[in-house]
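User: Predict the full complex structure for these chains.
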Amino acid sequence: MTATRAMTALLLAGALSLASASGALAQKQSPPPVGPPKDFRLPAIRELTLPNGMAVTLVPFGRVPKVAVTLAVQAGRINERADQVSLSDLTAALMEEGTRTRSAAALADEVAGMGGSLDVDAGSELTTIGGEVLAEHAAGMVRLVADVARNPLLPSSELARIKADQLRALSIEKSQPQPIAQDRFRSVLYGDHPYGRVFPSERTVQGFTIDQVRTFHAANFGARRAHLYVAGVFDAAATEAAIREAFGSWAPGRPSVRPVPKPRMTRSLTLIDRPGAVQSTIMLGLPVPDPVEPDYVALQVTDGLLGGAFGSRITTNIRERKGYSYSPFSSVTNFYRQSYWAEQADVTTSETGNSLKEIFGEIERLRSEAPPQAELHGIERNLAGIFAVQNSSRLGVIGQLQFVDVQGLPDSYLTEYVKRVLAITPEQVRAMAQRHLRPDRMTIVVVGDRKTVAHQVAPYVRAPGGI
Amino acid sequence: MVRPAPYPSLALALAGLAAAAAPSPGQQAPPPGFTVPVDYYKLPNGLKVVLSRDTTAPTAVVAVYYNIGFRNEPRDRTGFAHLFEHLMFQGSRNLGKFEFVKLVEQNGGLLNGSTRFDFTNYYQVIPSNAVNTILWAEADRMRGLAIDTSNLNNQRDVVKNEVRVNVLNQPYGSFPWIDLPMRANTNWYNAHNFYGDLADLDAATLDDAASFFRTYYAPNNAALVVTGDFDPAEVRGWIQQYFGPVPPAPQPPRPDLREPKQTTEKRFSQVDSLAPRPAIGLAYHVPDRYTPAWYAFGLLDQILGQGRDSRFYDEVVRKRGLASEVNAGINYGLGSMYDYDGPMLWEVTAFYDNDKPADSLIAAFAAAIEPLRTRPVASAVLARAVTKLRSSLYSEMEQFSGFGRANLLASFALFDDDPGRINRLESEFAKITPQVVLETARTYLAPSNRTILTVVPAGPGATRAANGGRP
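Assistant: Here is the predicted structure of the two-chain assembly.
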């Protein structure tokens, strides 16, 4: 790590002097170069597996007297049938409504007395149960998390209220252009695979029964599908003892079945009418290699240079040069064995067509020309720095470890990441764009004022010289 | 769910990043919890400097705060303070347009700027070996800007798109963060649309920018904070070298921000044609900062509004099923109870259903509030509020890799000349008795001290009511 970072500093000095030499022969001063990098110390992690198969990761970290306790269970949208969209969310919400020995109010009071809260959230692959509390309550929080995971009451008395909450949240989300675009984009990409189902129908939510919730919990929650992370300041021995006691007798449960989607890889454009909208919400992209594939890290760098960083090409173009948009960005979104790249931008309605032109222009430019070395090194150093920052908080560390665990990556992924990022060459980036960011395979969704926008987006329905 | 109200800010919010803080050896033992190292001094030109060392991770935060917020912008230039924040990235003496951004990013950093009630801030979260470089860059733009008409026009377009994406093209876009202060306050400084009317943004000129910069971006109107893993002697040297030569500027008298005491409840309703469900917001004027009542109000906020053990949650969500959550806070959506300087509101909001009258929500809020105005709170409840507050204070300090700590240090330096206050907050809250809580609730949670705003979904054919229905 040290050698890698020393190299970073040298590269930086080169980049800066290059930049000032290419400026208008100016009297301008160059910024002082960065100093020698400090060692980045990964925290000492303790990992263990309980006899019932539950994985545990303990990360003593930092000095602020708080601790994060997160139980990640392999249960989420991926485990829902087509007629069960959002059942995992309903289950998560009902898990917050008390256990066999603690009412919802008693649970809330108890965790608040520890200086925290306990939340249950369902995602695509994982349901997480936990929160952050004051350091002296680590063992107590472990016991609460175990109780909620293992013994939720899932009370039928609260079902109607929670369903009403979910329907309200759904109706509000469906009134926002970005979620509307996201829902359609994923539906085009993944069809009837769980990854393609973002919004449930109102009828689906209304039809859920408490038996369905209890069956979902019984089928998907168990020790072998769970991983407990504790990070922060805590008493290691007392916490480990609490973990063994609270989780040791949890039944292993059934293994998770995670179908892998066959995403759509053909060009399409969907225009969703939002009459009178003063901006068009654009989401465009396509499936790309997932984290276990060899191109993944190079693709991260490519994404950063093209649209991921604030100083990236697309943002510099449509924000700083054209003023079409405020916060355009691109990113790679990861599921299990499946990822997609997408650029998202909310643009001035009258510039919708021009925005697509500039975005595709930047994609094509990168596909045909390797980026300048200095520009690429800037992005690589940016990713390396962000990685260090991400590893400098309790939840950041847990997030990184969880990513590696969910994706089934080797531990070396984290220790080698910075070195791999810094080794990517300009030609590799061009090749990534050429190979993986093919406009003729992209899904485009535009949410906007149809009467103003339809003719602007018409030229983009098919890729130029489309296949 | 509905996303939180956005800050008027340069760019992308930092993802939930935080860094742990270390107590520095050799400091005197703190009251409960832990102590933030505070090394505070001033340069001869008036720049306030706070250094807070923390070697937990090889990262640092550099933050520059200017004591000019959107409250104080010129009267016919609403939104100007925020537009100006964008101009600070458009070029300075030695850095061209957007080069500041690239300089930070190329050094592995994250950055942003934002405009709040009483300050405009610029901050970077960086690997600690880049502190020298970033201090130089911050000083460069404090020394002088190099902005031309095309940059101004470009950022005007960007800001208009910011207002569109955050307000005009969103349901509840201005609720509550723009709407409630406009309704609850009466002094123009506190009650104007600080994101800006698009027409006012169009009227802004380069001359406006130059004069705004000369007046408010002087070192004697600013605080510089560096936190993280650095060598204090080295950093002091760099600060003297880069910021020392920046000349001070005379400051105009501060405007009178005082709000007249509210004596009767105010109610408003506004139509939002993009909203599918109604929403309600309550705003109460809070006690003056650092009075016992202010500390007590912070605890009332914990008791009433924070977490699933709170009284609002119990009444509104759990018992009556009117909403899935209640959001509450002092300086809600734009900061916290620690980072403003002037009159402030405690805001309470909830989203509910079309078949429920607003009065059902108001009754539920009253059921939670009124017992606190009639008898002293149980000591166990007060103790839990203090615990929650202490824990939330630590979380606030850790926000964004330690940026949160820099935010508090800068605010206390800028407004109070007293960044060491960060280490006294816990003990001040711990002093509050049930009797003080009762008196505070009686006075400040009186219906006469509040404004209620409901957002009503439009029927078909209604027009969009942007900016709370104002022109």
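The radius of gyration of chain B is 22 Å.
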